[in-house]
Amino acid sequence: MKDDEIRAIFLNELVGVAPDIDPKTVSDDDHLQDDLGLDSMDVLNLVSALHKRLDLNIPEADYSQIATLKMAVGYISKHVG
Amino acid sequence: MGLFAMPSLGADMEAGTLVEWLVQPGDTVKRGDIVAVVETQKGAIEIECFEEGTVKELKAELGQKLPVGAPLALIGAEGEAPREAAPPPVAEPPASPPSATAAEPPRAPGRTMPPAPAVAPVTPPGQVAASPAARIRAEELQLDLAEVKGTGPNGVILLGDIERAAPGAKGAPRPAQETAPPKTGSQIEEMRKAIAAAMTRSKQTIPHFYLSQTIDVQPAVDWLARRNADLPPDQRLLLGALFVRAATLAAARVGTSNGHFTDGVFRPADTVNPGIAIALRGGGLVAPALMDAAEMTLDETMAAMRDLVTRARAGRLRGSEMTAGTITVSSLGETGAEGMAGVIFPPQVALVGLGAPQIRPWVVDGAVEPRTVVTLTLSVDHRVSDARQAARYVAEFEDYISAPESL
Fold first, then answer.
1. CA distance readout (Å), A26 to A5, A21, A69
2. Is the pLDDT of residue B126 over 80?
């Protein structure tokens, strides 16, 4: 899967969890919790949504590796064939 | 014959605006059915019916701002002779009563809602957050919610947003249009006013005192990590669910922490309905109740919290959830300040404030080691309890959270 595709999917699911976020304003290095204001329930819902969408089970121990858009795209591209 | 009136959805509510009828004359309703949607300072709230029977007459118009207690509808008991030519009660939920609305201005289609499930399905991610009224109107207009800009709290789409987005909607003779369309920021301002009123009243009438204890939650954190490691995201638990579960069980054991203080008397509650303080993205706070949480398992508690948070953010809470809380649990989340002394939500008599977990040097079996600790601060109504009962609550909470497998 191309990075652009992953990026679009991630942003789409992020907005599904937090509808007030304008995907156009999310920059590569915005931290999901510190900058975008997601709480632990939002992060869990995002991980659930990605699980359904990509059949990718991100374990709790890896949450820190998807903390920003850039990191998440890297992580997903590594783990999805 | 029962009168269905504008309910009070909180100590601070004086009036609400009727924005949607979900029933029509002739519909049969059961206890717990959602019959109307009311916009309040805290957003759109789904209003349930508390009796069984047939809707005889709607006494309020859409768009009307009505004081608490104002009549909304007449509901006849089952078997009561229908007045005039009202359609006979239908056993199965009717799609729409035949001809009942033919001569009236266009409204939402009448329909009987199915009984609310114990745990309602979580809004699928990807679905746009919109108030129920907005959702139904968008459906009527065949409008794609994804293309409408929401002006409610968290960008939730409100009825007014749909009306504005509707192609040529100006001419549509819909009573709800009399409602002033909400403006960006005004909903948040209204919610701030509601919070200000409730909290001012609390501090003016409730003599608060506070008891704090820093608790070693390492056993809970370790247990949770082991449990979640092998589970798909949908089945994982959050530490917050363990806190709510421990707070609920402690409340069940310490009756003076759980109930309402009204008319100068404390009335302990039969069930524990913890109000879960939920911060809304974009500002504001609601604390809807998790109904009868003592009877839930830990997994059920987590599922119910997930549902409650989703609905709170989408503006789809129910009236009973706004008033039935018997104690509040307010957690600062996984990062942030280590403690908080909260303001009790009247008419409740206690609030459990939980700081964010911190790693601190802690003495375990005579040796110092780094442990994850959480500071619990119990806010207590001194008219109801003294430090002794409050200390019992704190000790019960600590016992439960120290043995997570018992939750």
1. 16, 8, 8
2. no
Chain A interface disruption, residue of B222, B234, B307, most A CBs within 10 A: B234
Residue ranges of chain B whose CB lies within 8 Å of a chain A CB:
122, 124-129, 150, 154-156, 225, 228-229, 232-234, 236, 238-240, 279, 281-282, 305-306, 309-310, 313, 333-335
Q: What is the mean pLDDT of residues B340-347?
A: 96
Which residue from A49, A10, A21 is spatially nearest to B154, judged by alpha carbons?
A: A21
Using CA atoms, how far apart are residues A74 and A70, in angstroms rounded to an integer?
6
* Closest residue to A48, CB basis, from B229, B233, B309: B233
B96 domain-assigned? no
pLDDT digits (tens, 9 = 90+) for B396-405: 999 999 999 9
Q: Do B225 and B159 reside in the same domain of the chain? A: no
Residue ranges making up the domain that contains A24: 3-79
Residue B88 lies in a domain: no
Grade residue B133 by pLDDT with cuts at 50, 70 and 90.
low
The answer to whether the CB atoms of B232 and A51 lie below 8 A apart is yes
Quick check: ipTM above 0.95?
Answer: no
The two beta strands, B43-48 and B317-318, are: parallel
Residue B22, token pair as written in the block:
């979900």
Number of domains forming the structure of chain A? 1
| Among B262, B242, B246, B264, CA closest to B254 | B246
Q: What would the pLDDT profile of B292-322 be if each residue is shown by its tens digit? A: 999 999 999 999 999 999 888 888 899 999 9
